[in-house]
Amino acid sequence: MILVISSSLHPDSRSRILARACVDRLAEIGEPTELFDLAVTTLPPCDGASAYGDANVQDLSKRIQAADGILIASGVYNYDVNAAAKNAVELTGKAWTGKVVGLMLAAGGQGSYMSAMGLANSLMLDFRCVIVPRFIYATGESFEGQSLADESIQDRVNTLVEETVRMAKSLAT
Ligand SMILES: Cc1cc2nc3c(=O)[nH]c(=O)nc-3n(C[C@H](O)[C@H](O)[C@H](O)COP(=O)(O)O)c2cc1C
Fold this sequence. Notes:
alpha/beta; 5 helices; two-stranded antiparallel sheet; binds flavin mononucleotide; five-stranded parallel sheet; Rossmann fold; 7 strands; 23% strand
């Protein structure tokens, strides 16, 4: 199963459109998938203590553990993934160990394309995740309303999804 985590809390999020495009592509190629939307399932702020006992945190941890690969979609906030994405990783920590992880960002401008690197480094160094060397970075021009309207970004969605599945299967054997 490939778990897609949509991190944005914005009601009209663009990174959620990317996350849904990944879910659609996974369905098209017949891969089991689940979408976990942080705007729908609220997680408590990580306090390093009692928050780990929250039912939604435990549910997300189980889904991460069960996943063969995980795709994270986030908006760029202050040259980083949004706080909700980082909070989710803080809360679920060791569940990420050894997972194949792909990343995608929606951004306001072209200049913030390295913004996923802090998260990527943490996943690699803390939890020995394997980061898929494919990446989606999309700005406002790639969307029309609640739709993805950019063929080159759709191609990247397809490639990221297919490469994530391929790597997850290869590393599982
Ligand atoms: C608080 C805040 C900080 C932001 N910081 C950046 C930034 O550093 N670089 C950038 O390109 N866009 C930045 N943006 C624009 C967002 O990345 C853009 O609106 C994106 O669509 C957000 O993702 P979402 O629609 O999935 O929530 C920022 C937006 C907000 C609200």
